[in-house]
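The instructor's notes for this session suggest beginning with a concrete chain rather than abstract definitions. Hand out the sequence below and ask the class to guess, before any prediction is shown, which regions might be ordered.
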Amino acid sequence: MALYITGHKIPDSDSICSAIAVAYLKNELGIEAIACKQGEINPETAFILEKFDLETPITKTSYAGEDAFITDTTDLALCPDDILDANVLGVVDHHKLGDLTTSTPLEAWIRPVGCSNTIVKEMFDFYGVEIPKDIAGIMLCAILSDTVIFKSPTCTKADTKAVKELAQIAGIENPKELGMEMFKIKSAVEGTAIRDLVMRDFKDFNMSGTKVGIGQLEVVDLSIFDAMKEDLLKDLETLKSEGERHSVLLLLTDIMQEGSELLISSDDASKIEEAFDMKSADSKMWLDGVLSRKKQIVPFLEKVFKN
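After discussion, reveal the predicted structure:
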């Protein structure tokens, strides 16, 4: 029976690249493994895979009765819907510990670092498996993406060390230059449907029984959203109603200014204001220095909804 490696719903570059890398590692260890994805890849991930000439993982959303290995999440809301009916043999993740449970012992690689691929690099080192040039390249790109080219507060020395070592393997002389090229791809939003933008990097969170959806768009110039903010807000309201969510938030992150504008659709916006100790204006607020949804947004919201 094959081992299926998959990341979270609405996959980002870390989710896709870690699945590919873990699948390669498992195959090298003599375990038949197949990299999978739960949804379509975004433009940045497509750029990464094309640059290093790697195929997109197969789409697979049902895992009941299958052997599975989960990357980049341990939250049930982000795992395949039937994951509790699968045989989960392992996880690798850099987020908070979620509510995924297993009936048997599993391989667990969970570290407080900026990217799952940093941990996957540690897995290769632990097993003594050489990383090929193309796999090293996509792993490096995923780390640059998740750490916002080392600017995110989630970035650690382990992340920068991994990028340095992976760059040597992949033959990348200037990783930061490659990172900027990736973020320019992210910034190319003209002509993209509003719903596609909102859902490009979107996650649902269960906050003490309350469903909150949070999306994030990272760009090099926030002004590209000036003409579409009202349409984005309208779609957040629609998405909130469609998914029976209490709130839907969208972070518009400017990696050059190192801050984010938060667009808000909520049944009770005062909770959002309380979380960040700031008043909103026209369903928007500027959050200076905020680059990370994982570290600078979710924990503060969870604290408010828990109370």
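Then share the key points. The chain has two domains: 3-184, 194-306. The chain has eleven helices and eleven strands.
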